[in-house]
């Protein structure tokens, strides 16, 4: 463009005539350069031409002139060149025309050769196409082989996955899935079958979850059904271990030669040896391969399920489901049968199921991580323990058989020891046993109440006869009786007590043994056991035996002879209480001198029973006297007495003599009190007979006959039917009757009225009201009665005296009434 611009500048300068020839030469040179550029074809012609036309006006005209000049020069040069080469060209054409014939021939030959070559090449082409096709196939096969070699591991792993699924190796299948996803699938992710596999894996995982959960459900159902077997095995092992320990302890005690005696009673060493031998034999018989919970239950489903859910990252769901289902099962296990309290098997099934449940939980706790925790098991156990205690407290209250309660206690102890061995706290169960112990004592008391009743029913209430030394030793071996006088007597002889005494003594010891059975294995000290034994024995004596004795004493068919024997029996039982205390001491090895040792209350028990028997003797004796008195048949209008005492009274006195003869075995005060009570009651009954309101008239003959009966009573009292009375003490029981009858027999009213109220009065015991009542019965108050007719005929003054005495007696009665009111 600079050149073109230069051309434009040169034209303008030429018009002005400033530069002349030099500028014209520069313009020509510029055009020459442009033409050289056009001819060279190295630069784009458009830019060159644009530089010519865009530089100066009218420059293109000059350029065209220059271009035409250049063309003419080239034409001249071409013409020169053609002229120079024209002859050679003509020669060449001539030569070419000469070879035309040869060319035609050659053409024919080439055509024929080509034809023949084409015919021969067709077969080659066919084979070549086959080769090409085979090469393509070979290449494809090679590619397929390479791809298959890439896919085969994936297919093999997937086939392995299917085999693991079929073999129920789900945990391995999940691991295989992870390998497929992380390692193999990225190699072949572009293939459709891989996409299908990838799409199928989530479904397989869900299938595995469902199958493993189904296995877990089957496992939970299985352990629910086998919980009792698991618990039974665990409790047997705990019991076996405990029995072995107890046997060793007993064996160690026997090595020290510890023998226990209670006077003539001995807890035989042979008995201990027998128990020990029996225990060891049972251990030998039961000695077999120790089974564990793994031997009884296949835990692989729960392990698999836990691992599967862990791999799937859903472990929390599995834990929640497992714990929820186990809590449901716990509630079912803790729900007892309604009739569980009827048999020990019901309690045993209940305990074995609970033990089996918690043994499984303990095993799961120790062999898995996180599925169950100690906090979870403790919470579950506390919930279960509260329910267990409530159930046992409710159902044990229905137990009335002490043997069943004892077996329940043994089951609770084994149950507690078993679970304690697995680390569960069981102190509350032992506290419950103390409640059940009280109930056990109550059932024992009820049972022994029946035993005592049977003993009392079977007793003949007569002294035990002994005909030889052997029988004597048998009785002495049963009851601690010591009497030198009896020992010196020759056979046959009699023990003072009846057969019920040794039987009761034996049964009290059996009760102590039974009570001791419950105290065993309670993990209590000897002092506590001693205290429990003494308290339960006190209850037996003060409640059960005392109640049985009182009921026996109050039975209608128990007569005076039986009551006397009961008093004698209670005396010997009271003396035997110290031997019972020694018996308990030798069992527990706790001295009676210990500060807190409870004493037996048998002394008060038997004293109370004896007092009740004494009172019943007094009552029955009075009843018997009343029966005889009811047989009295006085003729109250008789004019003269029969001259002898009434038959009923003589029979009564004979009866009293025989009864008081039996009373010689009673303590002196008891016999004296009974005799005094009988005489006082007889005196009162005779007095009431005279003063009976239904009796309207009494003749002097009847009074004299009545006096004969009272004289017999006084003679009986003076005969000292029971030794120990001082002077006329017993006769004073009839003093009221005696003074009353003497007053009427002597008719000494003047003395009575004159000395009334004086301490030295002859008729001090005669009540004016009593005298008035009897005197009015003797007055002539009825026309049908003329008792005093002869007196009125013979002595009218006496009739007036009677009226006067009646008036004075009424006056005395009124005075006494006024004084009492004041």
From TrEMBL:
Belongs to the SEC15 family. InterPro entries: EXOC6/Sec15, EXOC6/Sec15_C, EXOC6/Sec15_C_dom1, EXOC6_Sec15_N, EXOC6PINT-1/Sec15/Tip20_C_dom2. Residues 66-235 form the Exocyst complex component EXOC6/Sec15 N-terminal domain. This is Exocyst complex component. The keyword Transport applies. Component of the exocyst complex involved in the docking of exocytic vesicles with fusion sites on the plasma membrane. The keyword Zinc-finger does not apply. One of its GO terms (cellular component) is plasma membrane. Residues 429-777 form the Exocyst complex subunit EXOC6/Sec15 C-terminal domain.
């Amino acid at each position: 463009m600079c050149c073109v611009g230069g051309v434009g500048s040169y034209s303008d300068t030429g018009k002005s005539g400033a530069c002349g020839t030099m500028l014209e030469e520069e313009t020509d040179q510029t055009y020459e350069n442009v033409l050289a550029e056009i001819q060279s074809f190295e630069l784009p012609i458009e830019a060159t031409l644009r530089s010519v036309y865009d530089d100066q006006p009218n420059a293109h005209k000059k350029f065209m002139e220059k271009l035409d000049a250049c063309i003419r020069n080239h034409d001249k040069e071409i013409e020169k060149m053609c002229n120079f080469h024209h002859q050679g060209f003509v020669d060449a054409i001539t030569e070419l025309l000469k070879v035309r014939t040869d060319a035609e021939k050659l053409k024919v030959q080439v055509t024929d050769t080509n034809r023949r070559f084409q015919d021969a090449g067709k077969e080659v082409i066919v084979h070549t196409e086959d080769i090409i096709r085979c090469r393509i196939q070979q290449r494809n096969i090679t590619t397929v082989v390479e791809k298959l070699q890439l896919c085969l591991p994936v297919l093999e792993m997937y086939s392995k996955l299917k085999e693991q699924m079929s073999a129920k190796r789900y945990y391995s299948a999940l691991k295989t899935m992870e390998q497929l996803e992380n390692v193999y699938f990225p190699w072949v992710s572009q293939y459709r079958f891989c996409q299908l596999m990838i799409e199928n894996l989530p479904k397989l995982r869900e299938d595995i979850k469902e199958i493993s959960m189904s296995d877990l459900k089957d496992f939970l159902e299985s352990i629910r059904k086998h919980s009792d077997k698991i618990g039974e095995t665990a409790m047997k092992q705990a019991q076996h271990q405990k029995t072995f320990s107890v046997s060793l302890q007993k064996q160690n005690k026997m090595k020290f030669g510890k023998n226990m005696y209670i006077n003539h009673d001995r807890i035989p060493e042979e008995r201990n040896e027998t128990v020990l031998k029996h225990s060891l034999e049972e251990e030998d018989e039961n000695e077999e391969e120790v089974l564990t919970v793994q031997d009884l239950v296949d835990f692989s489903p729960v392990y698999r399920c836990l691992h599967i859910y862990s791999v799937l990252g859903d472990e929390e769901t599995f834990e929640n489901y497992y714990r929820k289902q186990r809590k449901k099962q716990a509630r079912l296990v803790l729900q007892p049968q309604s009739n569980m309290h009827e048999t020990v098997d019901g309690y045993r099934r209940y305990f074995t199921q609970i033990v089996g449940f918690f043994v499984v939980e303990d095993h799961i706790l120790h062999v898995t991580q996180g599925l169950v925790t100690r906090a979870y098991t403790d919470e579950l156990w506390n919930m279960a323990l509260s329910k267990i205690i409530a159930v046992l407290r409710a159902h044990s209250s229905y137990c009335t058989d002490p043997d069943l309660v004892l077996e329940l206690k043994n089951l609770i102890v084994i149950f507690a020891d078993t679970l304690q061995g697995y680390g569960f706290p069981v102190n509350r169960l032992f506290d419950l046993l103390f409640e059940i112990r009280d109930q056990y004592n109550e059932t024992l008391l009820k049972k022994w109440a029946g035993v005592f009743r049977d003993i009392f029913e079977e007793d003949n209430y007569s002294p035990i006869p002994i005909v030889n030394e052997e029988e004597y030793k048998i009785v002495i071996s049963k009851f601690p009786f010591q009497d030198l006088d009896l020992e010196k007597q020759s056979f046959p002889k009699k023990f003072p007590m009846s057969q019920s005494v040794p039987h009761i003594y034996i049964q009290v010891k059996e009760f102590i043994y039974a009570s001791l059975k419950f105290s065993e294995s309670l993990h209590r000290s000897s002092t506590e056991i001693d205290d429990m034994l003494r308290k339960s024995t006190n209850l037996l004596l003060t409640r059960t035996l005392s109640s049985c004795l009182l009921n026996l004493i109050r039975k209608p068919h128990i007569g005076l002879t039986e009551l006397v024997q009961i008093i004698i029996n209670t005396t010997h039982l009271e003396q035997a209480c110290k031997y019972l205390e020694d018996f308990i001491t030798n069992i527990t090895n706790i001295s009676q001198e210990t500060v807190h040792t409870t004493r037996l209350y048998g002394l008060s028990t038997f004293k109370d029973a004896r007092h009740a028997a004494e009172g019943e003797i007094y009552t029955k004796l009075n009843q018997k006297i009343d029966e005889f008195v009811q047989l009295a048949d006085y003729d109250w209008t008789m004019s003269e007495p029969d001259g002898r005492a009434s038959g009923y009274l003589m029979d009564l006195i004979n009866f009293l003599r025989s009864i008081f003869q039996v009373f010689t075995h009673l303590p002196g005060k008891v016999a004296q009190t009974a005799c005094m009570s009988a005489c006082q009651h007889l005196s009162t009954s005779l007095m009431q007979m005279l003063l009976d309101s239904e009796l309207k008239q009494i003749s002097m003959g009847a009074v004299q006959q009545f006096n004969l009966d009272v004289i017999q009573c006084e003679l009986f009292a003076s005969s000292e039917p029971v030794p120990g009375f001082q002077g006329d003490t017993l006769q004073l029981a009839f003093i009221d009757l005696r003074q009353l009858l003497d007053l009427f027999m002597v008719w000494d009213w003047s003395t009575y009225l004159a000395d009334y109220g004086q301490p030295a009065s002859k008729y001090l015991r005669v009540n004016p009201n009593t005298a008035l009542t009897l005197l009015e019965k003797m007055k002539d108050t009825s026309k049908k009665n003329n008792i005093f007719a002869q007196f009125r005929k013979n002595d009218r003054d006496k009739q007036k005296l009677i009226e006067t005495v009646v008036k004075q007696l009424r006056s005395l009665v009124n005075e006494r009434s006024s004084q009492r009111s004041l």
